[in-house]
Structure formats: structure tokens, C-alpha cells
Amino acid sequence: MKFDKVNIVSFFIILLSFLSDAHADKHQSEPLHEIFNDEWQARMERFPEFAQSMGDASKADQLSDVSEAAQQQWLEITKGFIAKLAKIDFDSLSNSDKINYQIFKQQLLNRAEELSFKAYQIPFLADSGFHTSVARLPVTTEFKSKNDYLSYLSRLEKVPQFFAQNIANMNAGLARNYSMPKVVMKGFTEVIHKQEKDSVEQSPFYAPFKSLPDSMSAADKGNLTEKARYIIEKEIMPAYKDLANYFEKTYIPNTKKSLGAYGFPNGKQYYQQQILDYTTGTLSAEAIHKIGLSEVKRIRGEMQGIIDSLEFKGDFKAFLKFLRESPQFYAKTPTELIKEASYIAKKMDGQLPKFFTKLPRQPYAVEPVPDSIAPKYTTGRYVPAPLDSTRPGTYWVNTYALDKRPLYVLESLTLHEAVPGHHLQGALNKELENIPNFRRFSYISAFGEGWALYCEKLGIEAGFYQDPYSDFGRLSYEMWRAARLVIDTGIHAFGWTREQAIKLLEENSALSKHNIQTEVDRYISWPGQALSYKLGELKIIEIRKKAEDVLGDSFDIRLFHDAILANGSIPLDILEQQMDIFIQTELDKLVKKKG
Q: For residue 108, what are the contacts with CB-CB under 8 A and spacing of at least 6?
């Protein structure tokens, strides 16, 4: 066991701070939680779709107002909460409320910055956006009564207005050179056209009316299906057709040619704010770029080690070509790919007790990415569900273009998106007690994505990656996240081209060219988000090494993981503070046990 004098002193200070909770001022706690509650209610009022997902169906017939006036009103409301928060005496709060305060304050500041910058004038990413969120309404809506169906139809009637508001925002963005780069818009309208070209019966919006409850009268069923047909044919389909025409004739021809966020008005300030938002840290773009280059070099060396062990006749480039083109590494049918992902997920389920003492009660499913969005969608994603929902959490696997979905990366993808990655962390987060709703239902990217990437590497300890090709796939995924540090900063701060970004991934990872192009377009369209994965993972690894060094043979991986997840999704600096307290507590137990 290593008793570093500096560490022990710092732990002692942290412990004293933790013990001072007993002297916390409850008169400061009450008004703080009133602010939390008031802001939560304001959020529910502002976003009817979100409110319904939280069990409040009072506005289930509404869509969010995304007009310029509503956005600026939300900004003023946010500033009001920031002003109220400033009146709270931070030093008088308990340890737990200090965590609440810090997270809440940063969330409000990030929101105010984005609203001030008018980020809502680009209401979509390369693979998703306001148009795809609307298409998810048939799945995310709970249908239990006739009123649920009527509210859903009333909500659909408001889709044309919702689209019009978004178009007005995008036009305002075009006027100030704030738009999505033209290069990522290729094929963008394919998903939109699909919604207006399908027949009414094929439309996902009609799906809820194909299996109406048996308890519903024949007259009610007839009236509902008739109304649904009319709204979908006369309102929804024309709205999607008009939206596609707008993108093709007005928006795309006028989008900006430059790629980076630095090309936006006040772009340098905007990108640094995005770095803070997604990484919860203040590292500069240059510092992050250097970390990325270092990680790329390290991982490339480990990948070469696997190639050497296989005695492959050829260089690194030839090995990547072999992986990308060999039929043995690809599923022949969508069902085969889903079955393989399901098997990996179930295999990891059986390993979870070795790494955690607390497991979530919410189950998860493995399903293909919906056909309507698959062509431009990422290779896999986790889709959460409310804790008391009739839906499980869902691990989406993209079965579009099977020859671009290699099996050798499927173990990494599954551990990341399902368990012990996003599903396990997110479901446990929802079960946390004695924390405000804004924390229970918020997602901090550096923590969540850092944890999920850490879980990919944890798969080694869980017995995965026995096949050298799947281990190479794991490293390829890690390279993918390391390269993101280089590419995101390269594009948004240093003038990189799309071709430079694609080349970096093509030359250093086994990702298919289709995946690489889709991912690079995602980084271009979403400044800063790609940085959260690797920076978050590196911090968790750093914290784990610290715990192992201090606790030695007494280090318990299950308790360590429980502690990482104990406070839910939190900024990395707060995570480190809380884990220092955990380490000190475990050290005290050890010292006491030894007498």
C-alpha cells in the first residue's frame, strides 16, 4: 500500500469538508431547492414533449414553441434563475447541495450561452434533428386511452407550424452566416422524403392506429382511424414535402462552405463554450489536439502489436483493407447482426455481478435503427425510456448497409451502448434518490460518454476480445475516439478539411469508409460533442489508478464502480472530488481494520 504524504493531506482536507455537512445552513438549502423545483416546472411548461415523458400529460396535445420570441423568453427565464442562484450562500451549503449548486449553475450558464448565440437557428445534426424527433412521436407516446390518441392527433396537427418555426429560425441563421456546412448536407433530405412518399398505412405516424385497444368501441376506432388518415395525408405528408423542398431549394444552396465553428459569428468564443459544455473542463483546443495526437500514436502501436502477433503478410494499410473487405467479418442478414449483438449483450449481463453490487431494475432491448433514419444514422445508439414506461431502454444497431457494419467492432459497440455502458449508467441514474430532478434526468456528456468508453476497455477484464480481430476492433474504436480529439479541434479551430479528417480515420482505424464519412459529418455538424468520450475516459482511468495505488490489495472493483455511478451524471471535476472522498473513506476502513 502506498501512503503518499501529499495525497493523505489532501484527503484529510476533503474529509473535513465532507464532515462539515453537519453544520450546513438549512435556511440556504430550502430556497436552493425551491429554485430547483421552480426551474423544473418552467422546463416542463416550456417543453410539452419532455413533460409527457415525465408523466405530465397536461399538454400532450402540444408541441414545443420554438419561435424566436419563445427562445428569447426562455433566455430571460434562464437569466432569472441565474440571478436567484447568485443570492444563495454557497459556503453555507451541505456537501451534497454544493454538488447540486455547481451542476445546476453550469447547466444554466451553458443554456444561456447557447440561447444568446441563437444555436437554435441550426435545429438539426447531420443524422437527426427536429424532423426526426417528430417522427419518433408514435414510439415515445404512451397510448392507454381514447384521450391519448386524440391528444396525439392534436399534436400531429401542429407539425406544420412546428416546421414553419424551425424554417424561420434557419432563415435567420442563413442571414448571419450561421448554418450547417454544405458538405454534410449530401443525402440529408432522403429521410425527409421518405415521410411524404410512404402511403398513409406505411407511415410511422399511422402505426398506433393499427392495433387500437379491444376495449374501444367500433365507432371510436372508426372515427380515430379516419381522423388519423386525414391528418397524415393532408397535414403531415405535405409538411414533410414542403420541408424537403425548403432544404433543397433554399437552405442547402445557401449554406456556408467553411466547416469549422470558428467560421460562425463569434465562432472562437462559441467553440470554447462548447468545449466547456461537453467536456466540463477548460482545456484549450490546442491542448486537446495534442492529447489526441498522443493517444493516436499510443493506440496505433498497440494495433500494430496485434498485426505482428497474427503474422499477417502485409503492412498496416493492407491489414485494414483485409478487415474491410473480407466477407467473414460481416453479417449476411439484419437478423444475424441483431442476434449477434443480443448474444454479446446477454453474455455481458452475466458478468455484471463481478463488477457492480448495484444493478438497475429497468431492462433493455436490442433493436435495429428504424429504417426511416438508418441511411444517415450512426452505427449504434442507446435510446433511454422513462423508468416507469411500458418501453424498455433500447440499444439500437444500424442494419442498413450490412457490408459496412463489421462484426469485429460489435463487442465494443455493445458494451458501450448497452451494458455496462449507457443503459446501466442511465437506468441507475433514474433510480437515484434524494437528488433534484434536474440531475436525475440530465446527461453530462463527458461523464456518460467517458463511462461508456471506459466500459469498452473493461470488457477485457470481463473476458471479451478473445479473438484478436475483435481486440483489434476494440482498439479501432478507441482510436476512433482518440482521433475525435484531433479531428474536432482540427475542423473547428485549425481549419482542417473534411478530407483530412476522413484520411486520419481511414489510415488509423478499421472502421468502414461509410462509417468514417458518416462520423466525420457528425463531428462537423456537432462542435465539441466528440471531445467528451476520450477526455471522460482518461479521467476515469486516472481516478481508478489513483484508487488502486492508494488502496493496493484492498481495492474492490465493485465498490469503485458503485462509487463512480453513485452521484449520477456529474462534471469530471466534481467526480474527482467525490472519488477522493471514496478513496479516503476506504482507506480509513482499512486503517481501522488493522487497528
A: 39, 78, 81, 82, 85
SS3 355: coil
| 78 and 136, same domain (yes or no) | no
383: helix, strand or coil: strand
Q: Report the distance separating Cα 242 and Cα 444, nearest Å.
A: 35
Is 154 inside any structural domain? yes
Quote the cell numbers at residue 22: 453537519
Query: Can you list the alpha helix ranges (DSSP code H) found in 418-467?
Result: 422-431, 437-440, 445-461
* Domain membership of residue 136 as a residue range: 130-257
Residue 561 lies in a domain: yes
* Element (DSSP H or E) covering residue 149: helix 146-157
172, burial (CB in 10 Å: exposed 0-12, middle 13-18, buried 19+): middle
In a domain? residue 15: no
- Contact criterion met (CB below 8 Å) for 534 and 485: yes
* Per-residue pLDDT reduced to its tens digit, 258-271: 999 999 999 999 99
pLDDT at position 514, please?
A: 83
Query: What CA–CA distance (Å, rounded) separates 485 from 488?
Result: 6
- Please tell me the distance from the alpha carbon of residue 393 to that of residue 387, in angstroms, as a whole number: 9
User: Cell 453490487 sits at which residue?
Assistant: 357
Side by side, the strands of the sheet bearing 393-397 are 364-368, 393-397, 380-383
10 Å CB burial of residue 566 (0-12, 13-18, 19+) is middle
Tens digit of each residue's pLDDT (9 = 90 or more) over 488-540: 999 999 999 999 999 999 999 888 888 899 889 999 999 999 999 999 999 99
Beta bridge partners of 366: 395
Judgement on whether residues 52 and 176 belong to the same structural domain of the protein: no
DSSP, residue by residue, 224-266: HHHHHHHHIIIIIHHHHHHHHHHIIIIIGGGS-S--SGGGSTT
Answer yes or no: are the C-beta atoms of 17 and 581 closer than 8 Å: no
Question: Count of CB atoms within 10 A of residue 427's CB?
Answer: 21
Is 189 in contact with 244 (CB distance < 8 Å)?
A: yes
**How far is Cα of residue 539 from the mean position of the Cα atoms in its chain?**
18
Going along 494-540, which residue ranges are E strands? none
Give the list of residues 6+ apart from residue 340 with CB closer than 8 angstroms, or none. 331, 407, 410
